[in-house]
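Here is a protein:
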Amino acid sequence: MRAAGWKIVTLSEEYGVQQGQHVSDTAWISEQTAAGRVLVTSDARILSDPLERQAIVSARALMFTFPTARLRSDEHFGRLMTHRERIAGIVSLEDIPAAYALYEHRVSRILP
């Protein structure tokens, strides 16, 4: 991702390897949104948890997720590269809060 020109900060880089594994979703959603970051997660379950959905709305977050956690990292990369122009367009709209799922052939808004 970085080699493709994306500015990436992982949870492990931001919080440390050990703490990054244990920081709550509601905390990193609000903290990273406040830091001006667009969120990307492979944990689509975030969107089914009412508290985590509320964190996205309250923080006015923009999040992209993959519809399944079963994808390999190269598949994540492939989808991000396939949809990079669409993602850039969504980011530029600043229509937040919002969450989008990155499917193989489409990007779908799933929140709100």
Residues 2-111 form one domain. The radius of gyration is 13 Å.
